[in-house]
Amino acid sequence: MNPKTLSLLEYDKILVRLKDYCVFSASAKFAEKLNPTPSLKKAKIRLAETSEARLLFSTHETISVGGARDVREAVVLASRGGVLETQNLLDIKNTLIASRRLKKVFNKDDAEVENFLYLQKIAEKLPPPLKLVDAITRTISDKGEVLDSASTKLASIRRERRVTHDRLMTKLRKIIANADNAKALQEAIITQRDNRYVLPLQVQYKGRIKGIVHDKSSSGATIFVEPLSTVEGNNQLRELQLAERDEERRVLAELCAKIGEFSEEITQGVEALAELDLIFAKAKYADAIGASEPVLYEIKERKSTKSHEETRREQKKEKAANIPTFELLQARHPLLDPKTAVPLNITLDAETRSLVITGPNTGGKTVTLKTVGLLALMAQSGLHIPADSGSALPCFTAVHADIGDEQSIEQSLSTFSAHIKNISQILRKADEKSLVILDELGAGTDPQEGAALARAILAELLERGALSFVATHYPELKAFAHTTEKVVNASLEFDLHTLSPTYKLTIGLPGRSNALAIARRLGLDPRVLAAAEQEIDPSGMRVDSMLDDIHRQKKLARKDQRKAQKARMDAHRLRRELEDERAKVEEERLRILSNARSEAEKLIEGTQAEIHAVKRGLEEAEKTLVEIESLEEQIEQVKEKIPQPLPKKKKKRRVSEPYSVIGGTPKVGEKVHLRKLNVKGVLLALGEDDAEVQVGALRMRVKLADLQRRKQGEKRETSAKISAPSMVLPKLELDLRGERAEDALERLERYIDQAYLTEMPFVRIVHGKGTGRLREVVREALRANTYVKSFEEGKAKEGGAGVTVVKF
Known about the structure:
This protein has 22 helices and 23 strands. About 30% of the residues are buried. Helix 3 (about 25-30) crosses helix 11 and helix 9 (about 150-175) runs antiparallel to helix 10. It is flat and about 130 Å long. About 50% of the residues lie in helices and about 15% in strands. Strands 10-11-12-8-13-14 form a six-stranded mixed beta sheet, sandwiched between helices. Strands 18-17-16-15-19 form a five-stranded antiparallel beta sheet, with no helix packed on it. A four-stranded antiparallel beta sheet has the order 1-2-4-3. It is α/β, with parallel strands linked by helices. The longest helix is centred in the C-terminal third of the chain and has 83 residues, at about 540-620.
């Protein structure tokens, strides 16, 4: 991507904000060098990595690369035989600990890790346990001091040094304590000069204590004497100090040699940590700006071998299939305050290759252009964009922009000349995989010539197939967009009552000329206004009047749409209330039937007891077989009078065709075949569109369309043993972020069915926060699902409002 374009679209400011979320210097350097990729495959992987990191933070809030340092230079020095400072060794230790901690997270064998395949692949680059952490811990303390445990020899030297030091101090204290020496001493203290312990002696008592003079005070009143009796002790202590220093250096050199052996693994680990931390920074930034993952797709090349008519047919086919060329839903500029920024909705079909935006000055045209270009760059960098889920963008091989006043005194360039120089470079490079953004096209020169030049530039971009967004004030470009295929008008609205722009983008309509209306509201003389109106072409006035009518009709349509949406929501609410009321009535009906059933069963038990008593009496009286059969017929008549239980009524589902069982409707107690699970079961209950089936120890509810009645000639099984099917246990969590509502609902229904069949107690549905639209769609579907007992918002550690926990 052109560095100048990146700067014009303020991409560098995004990187500065991203860098603030990086934990250590290596990842911050990666953030500074982050560039959009023209490769669709790489861009999709980058976006998926960010999505995985956001999901990871929702379940592992404390995960980070904290403690890691960029130790690559230190490791390289160690590999070349250098001896590192103890602080460098501690940095290496902390980096290896951070690496080990992250590697453990992604080395788990549970199903949860399957949600982080891209992050797991990066984590595989982290170094394995190298036993260096323990070696450094044994050698160096947290304060950076070499420990006695570093080597046996060092511990021995230090013990001997401490003993020698204590003996030397004892001798010096005895000299100080001697009353004969009290007058001669400047102070009763032991001090050091040239790493040797000495006593401060008054210069006039120079010969009182025999010894070696090492130093004299600046005033000359004090000399520092090493008594002769302590020379040998000082010598021994100094030798032991040098031996300790040499042993410490040997230990550190040996430790650095071990580190040097694994320099490649450690360097690769640091880069993997930096890569992970950059992804974590992207996820944190996305959460901070309320972003969502966009859908990226490849731009198909228009092959020259195809005729113009074939190309047009393909474009019409794409348009009929509602395949958008470019779609941003509720998009905001990431550098603007989200509380005050007015979101943009831009949807261009497959045939549209240019959007001409008109509107008042300071109306938001430039911000709209920058938002379009910047979000495209962010998406191809793996950054989620501040727009609603479902936004779709092409993956551009290049993004070109000409925005702002680029006049240069040094280069003798006027504003117009600077724009033309920039546009000429863009025209040489633009192709069908390019995004071109032009602000105030043709401005800075004679309006007539500027408008003609603008039309010609726009026509050339259309010929090259580039997708372009153009802002202009020229009415000629409005007409060009209206009469030219593949070009669409758009406008930014202006409120004549407040004399201020609304920043709302309307696609399909050009902007109106508001100069006379503004002048009228500001109190300009009506005669001047009338004279000005006479100078304007009448056809232009008619066009403005028509635009006024269209905008008014559109405003009324939006108002009616809001009313219809509210009515639809009220209808849904009433329907839920009626369904709840119906469920209560059904429960009451079943309770009454259950009581009746209990009473009937008691009656059966009593009647059967009487019958058995009669039978025994007849057997004793040796009655004939005919009399016994007559009594059995009476028994059957009594059984027939006992009421049978009524099946529970199920809520009717709206289906296009009635459900039916393959092979005819089976009876309760009959064996059936479950086609999807490929197992046999026994029919327990039969409803209008579903049935309850016993499969082994498992009772499940299935649709009638999934059942198949046993054929009459099919051989009966000799054993009544039916085993439950081997089913793959679904994941505990379903991630729907970034999906459209229709696709999300289809996945949700399959997932809920699967989870219910495997008797999972609860599941989590991750739909993200965003605007809440996907969350409402998901929860509406859960309310209507008969398998769902209840659902609730996830707790803070589970993802809060971005997660719904479902119980069956």
